[in-house]
Amino acid sequence: MIEQDVIRVCDLISSRRQVGARAIMAIAGPPASGKSTLAKAVVQSLNANQSSVVPLATLVPMDGYHLDNRVLEARGLLARKGAPGTFDGVGFCKAIKALRSAQHEAFHPKFDRQLDLAIANAIPVHPETPTVVVEGNYLLMDCDPWRSLADVYTATVFVSPTLEELESRLQQRWIAHGFDPKAALHRAKTNDLPNAELVINGSRKADLTLKQNYTEFGMRYAF
Q1: Angle at Cα 45 formed by Cα 43 and Cα 51, nearest 5°?
Q2: Please, are residues 135 and 33 in contact by the beta-carbon 8 Å criterion?
Q3: Pick the CATH number of 2-220 from 3.40.50.970, 3.30.750.200, 3.30.420.10, 3.40.50.300
Q4: Where are the domains of the chain?
Q5: Of 191, 193, 141, 204, the residue nearest 164 (C-alpha)
Q6: Contact 33, 161 (CB under 8 A)
Q7: CA dihedral 136, 42, 155, 53 (to 10 degrees)
Q8: Can you give the pTM of this predicted structure?
Q9: Torsion angle defined by CA atoms of residues 214, 218, 219 and 222, in that order, rounded to the nearest 10 degrees
């Protein structure tokens, strides 16, 4: 159950926290693994009993660093959206490194799935917020530029169901976006599943690995 995993992740953050230092927790995994659901739940749990207007935790998803569709189209990468080269990986890594310093408020982009674009400066990170949860596919990849964050994270979590489960979820995701089942499966197999295999095979070992299937409102909920 996700509730048990939220407790495990929160306990991991607590065990790694250092006095006077901001904790940066990485939650990674392939597309449709449930990492976004877990990350949101962890942040909600950390903020549940706060008595201050300053959040105790803020979520910064990697998805906000998607390159714009016009850039991807010009580079012939629109059909591969979600692959490593379709993100501003260097910019993302620089922004996460900067979060170690909590002297000033920082602002990060947020990806709007309905609009299919990133909204600039939509996520504020208060300088007094002690925990930042970062979520995304490639956070633990053992290649540049992603590996430059290895020493930045206070703790790491990897969420990874089986490839069979991921294929089913990805097909259902595209059906929800209006694709017929055959087209949805083709979309999943030609883009999302290769990305998933890359993440599973190319990521460093996390401090905590989870294989739970998360649900919300009785339906599978994975990003």
Answers
A1: 95
A2: no
A3: 3.40.50.300
A4: 2-220
A5: 193
A6: yes
A7: 100
A8: 0.91
A9: -30
Rounded to an integer, what distance in angstroms lies between the CA atom of residue 212 and that of residue 165? 11
User: Mean pLDDT, to the nearest integer, of 69-91?
Assistant: 96
User: Average pLDDT, stretch 166-171?
Assistant: 91
Residue range 156-177: mean pLDDT, rounded: 91
Q: How far is CA 24 from CA 12, 47, 193, 197, in A?
A: 12, 15, 28, 26
Q: Which amino acid is at 130?
A: P
**CB 151: neighbour CB atoms within 10 A?**
8
pLDDT in tens, 83-115: 999 999 999 999 999 999 888 999 999 999 889
Q: Is the pLDDT score of 215 beyond 60?
A: no
Work out the average pLDDT over 130-137: 97
